[in-house]
Amino acid sequence: MPEWSRSARNLVIRAASLLIGGVAALLLSRTGPGGTLTGMVRDALGMIPPVPVAVALWSGIGLLLASLLARIGAQVWSRLRTDTGPLPLVRSTDLRVKPGEDIGRLPVFRRILGGIATLQRPDPVKLVNELVSAGFSMNASDIHLNPGNDSVSVTLRVHGMLYDLVELDPVLYPHVVRRIKVLADLSTFRRDIPQDGHLRFEDGNYTGRVSVMPTNHGERLAIRLSACNAAILDLDSIGMPAPMLETHKALLSRNQGMIILTGPTGSGKSTTMFASLLHIQEIRGDSVNIVTMEDPIETDFKGIHQSQIGRSPGMTFASGLRSLLRQDPDIIMLGEIRDDETAQIAMRAAMTGHLLFTTVHAGSTAAVFGRLIQLGIDSSQLATGVHSVISQRLCHSLCPDCRVESPPTEEHGKHLRLIGLEKVPEGPFYTAAGCDRCLGKGFIGRRSLFEMLRVTDRLRDMIAENEPAHRLHRQAREDGMTTLLEHGLELARSGDVPLMEVIRTVSA
Ligand SMILES: [Zn+2]
Domain span at residue 367? Predict the structure, then answer.
């Protein structure tokens, strides 16, 4: 609602309440001991000449009606202004996305958005279309709209790095928020509560999860973007070292058992999981029944049956998994195992003709087994049921245009000793200062670090005997496992990532 109508409404409400209050006070002042209400009213009316009373009453009613009409009018007006079509959605023709572009196109979008934002009467619809186009074009994971003291900054998160996109005028900002809320079917009138929704796109390949949070400067918005883009989810291009990839692909052809991923939030586990599922789909064709249970569903995949956890109290990982098993799945992807019940049903599923992917929160690949035993899984079941545990981390990768060789420093040595490496490994190592191509950041994109613990015969015996994580780790190393740190150092030596970034992500 515009500011003028809000203050006019407040004025009217104040005037009306003053009037009602005055009349009530007058009536009360006339009440004597033993006086009836009728007598009281008659006395009050008798005291004031009838004409002013009638005028006051009618003008009071008039003012109340006028304030009501003003309120309805303002809401209708705001709806008319934001909804430009019969269906509030982002049309495919409005979405100018060239997929696979990197941040090189950021200056172009900065110019376009800056141009719209500084117009005499900026069009919020056009502005929002360009914002999401910019996000999808550059493969951004999120768009942030941060209201501040005297301007609103809009930033994009691309491969984990934040880039400024445009500054908006605080007068324009509420219209932009309203447009996004209309697209996401959220309440435009409530500005004092957190809200969540999904942007509507004509093209079903795009999704945008909107989250609105009230702050002291207005509503802060975050839009999590995802596009159905098979190129990103190609198992061959997720950055797994070749020998590991070969083993992983071989395990994907199994009919039952468990493949577990571990690593902090945002380490690329979902990408690996879905790339694996799509690989199975490609190899086995339409005859394979792939189901998932996610919290929440980030991206829609064709041919994969996805269910969301946590929408209602009855839909938990455990209850969902139990009913899912009655739906005859071949491959199951379970977002996370975090309680006993889910752990046990998952283990049973993995031993009765289903290939199951899941994530378990643990410090390392070897520590996953101990964690599952804590959750009540029998060690002998673990030994036979689990094929492999994959640990994953993401590192910012160096800009190939401005990276330069840089020898390791004493600082590196100190950090490396902390993660158990006595001497600084052979270089060369690299850093980057920033250039036009990387927009001064020194980084473009990200690389994954992988470690895969493949359950060999020797390890199977040790897991069954409930041996501690450090001994499992040592045995896995003897059986040829490459650690996260080793994979990281290899990438650092080839100039893909800086040494400090490897140390930081591996020690986290
Ligand atoms: Zn650069």
Answer: 235-392+449-481
